[in-house]
Amino acid sequence: MSTSTYPHVLTRLTATEERLRLALEAACMGTWEVDLASGAVSLSAGHEALFGLPPGSFPGTEGALFEAVHPDDLETVKQSVCRAAQEKAAFEVEFRTVWPNGSVHWLAAKGRPFFDENGQAVQVVGVGMNIDERRRGEADLLETNRRLEETLAELQRTQQQIIQQERLRAMGQMASGIAHDFNNALSMILGHSELLLCRPETLDDKSKALAQVQTINAAARDASQVVGRLREFYRPREEDEPLGHVDVRRLVERAVSVSQPKWRDQALARGATIAVETDCQEVPLVAGNDAELSQALTNLIFNAVDAMPDGGTLTIRTCADSQRVTLQVRDTGVGMTCEVRQRCLEPFFTTKGEDGTGLGLAGVVGVVQRHNGKLKVESQVAKGTTVTIKLPVAERSRSAPDAMSRDHSRAHSGCRASRTTRLCGRS
Ligand SMILES: Nc1ncnc2c1ncn2[C@@H]1O[C@H](COP(=O)(O)OP(=O)(O)OP(=O)(O)O)[C@@H](O)[C@H]1O
Ligand SMILES: [Mg+2]
Q1: Does residue 373 line the site of ligand 1, with CB under 6 A?
Q2: Which atom of ligand 1 is nearest to the CA of 340?
Q3: How far is the CA of 83 from the centre of ligand 1 (A)?
Q4: 146 lines ligand 1 (CB under 6 A)
Q5: What pLDDT is attached to residue 399?
Q6: 274-281 and 312-320: which strand pairing?
Q7: Got the DSSP string for 45-104?
Q8: pLDDT of residue 416
Q9: Is 315 exposed, middle or buried (0-12, 13-18, 19+ CB in 10 A)?
């Protein structure tokens, strides 16, 4: 290098150094150097700022450097530098620094050792950078995460409470439903027994008396099945548990007879006449629970009677195709408004005030669903209401229709294929 170029090189070096300084300043970074033999430490003005020191005030000793490091992080810093010297590798370390005013700040330092000709580490040089913002971001993220976890736990607790409340509500509904159906059965037992008590002469006619007692007996059996449902609440029916085979036409006969105190005697007592017509075609058996279906039908009859305070006609029909048995209950009563029609299946919905629980139709829906059936309610104000239930034909009836209808005919010897009966309050 000629002497004429020397000042030129110096100028270039100064310019490079200046650019480096500017870049470090813009990045809020500083440089540091540690002389391992003497323990002398030199910091750039930028790095002094990272330690909260005014320019040129750092004493330049290892002790002063260690003093600037947070005591809890000092060991980590020392180990990083030692490891870098031993392994002859660059290192990175993040630590807290305590400023003279007591405030704590995060720094990230990157450095590398330099060695003499014997391979002995003589100097460690590096840069430092303030990472307060990143650390705050991380802390915020951790805090947000913690809060999210708390909220999630709270949500899970609330969900558990809702499930628990839902269970209690379901239990309450079930208990009310059972009480409702039990009450229906009891009212029939009471009605028939009161008839016997009011008309003791009935007892002289053995066959009439026997029929009454049989009706009371059937109602009592239904009542005991209602109570049996309580047990089923804790032991739901297994998927493959066999269902009984129910003859819907027989169900209708029995329900009409058992509910007689309601549609005939109670109606008569208030001066109304209700005619009951049954139009029952012979239908295949359905797989189901006799008592449940019987309670459902009784509920529909009771509703129909309630809807005809001035009397009218209650018609019960059965018919079937190859897949489904249809059971239809129609009345010529007051009918339902659009709003009532929309809400009538809701549990506890009633327009009967103190006299109704609003669980009748909800119970019917439950029974129909358990039998994989369908329910439809049609109603017109002042014209009447028709409730149609469709239940799947039992597999056995479907696979051997001839045999089934033979069985069926034998069971009902004397029945015509389609039977229409009219019963009337005043008959
Ligand atoms: N056949 C019907 N005609 C007119 N309205 C009906 C008929 N059946 C049901 N409803 C309406 O639907 C409502 C709900 O019926 P649901 O059987 O569930 O309860 P409820 O009859 O009021 O009470 P409960 O069954 O305890 O006597 C009734 O209050 C009534 O307004
Ligand atoms: Mg009802």
Answers
A1: no
A2: 31
A3: 85
A4: no
A5: 55
A6: parallel
A7: HHHHHHTT--TT----BHHHHHHHB-HHHHHHHHHHHHHHHHHT--EEEEEEEE-TTS-E
A8: 36
A9: buried
pLDDT of the residue at 342 = 95
Q: Which atom of ligand 1 is nearest to the CA of 345?
A: 18
Rounded to the nearest whole angstrom, what is the distance from the C-alpha of residue 44 to the centroid of ligand 2?
A: 91
Are 371 and 246 in contact by the 8 Å Cβ rule? The answer is: no
> Does the beta carbon of 340 lie inside 6 Å of ligand 1?
yes
Ligand 1 proximity of 423 Cβ (cutoff 6 Å): no
- Which residues, given as ranges, of the chain have pLDDT below 70? 1-10, 167, 229-242, 396-421, 424-427
Residue-level pLDDT at 20:
78
Domains of the chain: 6-130 (3.30.450.20), 164-424 (3.30.565.10)
Ligand 1, atom 12, residue with closest C-alpha: 344
Q: Which atom of ligand 1 is nearest to the CA of 362?
A: 18
Here the tokens at position 122 are 């003589």
Q: pLDDT tens digit string along 233-275?
A: 544 455 555 678 999 999 999 899 888 888 988 888 889 999 9
pLDDT digits (tens, 9 = 90+) for 95-135: 999 999 999 999 999 999 999 998 888 999 999 999 999 99
Calculate how far, in angstroms, residue 359's C-alpha sits from the geometric centre of ligand 2.
7
Q: Which ligand is nearest to the CA of 351?
A: 1
Instruction: Tell the residue number behind the tokens 């010297």, with chain if given.
Output: 85
| Cα-based angle 237, 242, 244 (whole degrees, multiple of 5) | 105
What is residue 188's predicted lDDT score, i.e. its pLDDT? 87
| pTM exceeding the 0.70 threshold for the entire prediction | no
Q: CA nearest 43: which of 114, 116, 126? A: 126
Measured in Å, residue 289 CA sits from the centre of ligand 1 at: 23
Angle between helix axes 248-258 and 206-234 (nearest 10 degrees) is 110
Tokens of 329: 């209950």
362 CA to centre of ligand 2 in angstroms: 9
Can you read off the two tokens belonging to residue 169? Answer: 């509500």
- Token match 């005697």: residue? 265
